[in-house]
Amino acid sequence: MQVIRPVPHFASLNAGYRLRAQDKRKRGAMSIGFIGLGAMGAGIVPRLMAAGHTVTGWNRSRAKAEPLIKAGMRFADSPRAVAAASDIVFSIVTDAAAVRETALGADGIIAGLKPPGIYVDMSTIAPDVSRAIAAEFAAKGLTMLDAPISGSPVTLAQGNASVMVGGDKAAFDRVEPVLRAIGPKVTHIGASGLAVQMKISVNLLLMVEVIAFGEAVALAEKGGVKRETAVDAILKSVAASPVLGYRGPFILEGKMPEVPLADVTLQQKDMLLALEQGRKLGSPVPLAAAANEMMNACRGLGIDHHDFVTAHAVYRRLGGQQ
User: Would the pTM count as exceeding 0.85?
Assistant: First the structure.
């Protein structure tokens, strides 16, 4: 098996996590399962361990789990095995198909979780799909909450991520202390599916904001303002926001990260959810539609592997700047 060195973040924090976990284990510690150890999962699990919880994880690629295993996470061979060892099971995976498979498959969470265990899905998927999966759990006497996280690996590491939760209020009350180990802003939105409904709306706003930022900078550049100056001015203005604060500088020369926080394809997945919700509910979303077209343009130009703030480059090309 390939040996993977812990990334510096884990290497520097392992000892601290273990010491704090020992201190807190006696105070409300739980057995937590976590499915999906990508960028967000890999940031969430250490926070849960730091709060004193025992975490058992699973990921389709074990290699991604190695730094977490070295930090103290246990690893199981299936979502079912994770659930069997846990009081609460979290998942954060790419799309609805992945949620269905990890939750309802033959070796899924539903096959291993026992009452009064709770399944908490943090993925961003269609509300109707989330409610349908929750109904399958209810039919087995189990509880599922939709609890999408709003933030990025950056905001998560800063301790500024927020979690919106939909589903049974009593179950929410039980998991709330665990969720606060992930981020300080935890809100019960309402019934099943309403948290993902709210998350889609939040992501619509975020994407339109970031696309508009690129449009504004390109316009300023076309008028003679240096890009660095334009970005600095916006981030010091009333239009500044947390997402622009950490994402805006990516458009400066040489600053686009090799590993995107959210590439065009991933972000467009959420925008398509917003467009579909607009269609189903009869609620106009013209700004979402325009932002989505900029994502199409990014893919057409072959720059969709970058963070979606790369839409700024599309505006420059359309304006004859490159």
Answer: yes
Closest by CA to 181, choosing from 70, 10, 318, 54, is 54
Instruction: Point out the least confidently predicted range of 18-27, 28-37, 98-107, 231-240.
Output: 18-27
Q: Which residues are catalytic?
A: 199
Q: Where are the domains of the chain?
A: 8-191, 197-318
- CA–CA separation, 255 vs 41, rounded Å? 25
- For 8-191, CATH gives 3.40.50.720
Residue 165, beta-bridge partner list? 188
Question: Where do the H-state alpha helices sit in 160-241?
Answer: 169-182, 194-222, 227-235
Burial class (CB in 10 A: 0-12, 13-18, 19+), 8: exposed
Phi, psi of 75 (to 5 degrees): -125, 130
Q: What CATH code is assigned to 197-318?
A: 1.10.1040.10
Averaged pLDDT of the chain? 92
pLDDT confidence bin for 27, thresholds 50/70/90: low
Could you give the CA distance from residue 95 to residue 126 in angstroms, rounded to a whole number?
Answer: 9
For the record, the structure tokens of 100 come out as 């269905």
Phi, psi of 265 (to 5 degrees): -65, -45
Lookup: tokens for 312 = 């700024």
The residues with which 146 forms a beta bridge, in sequence order, are 121, 166
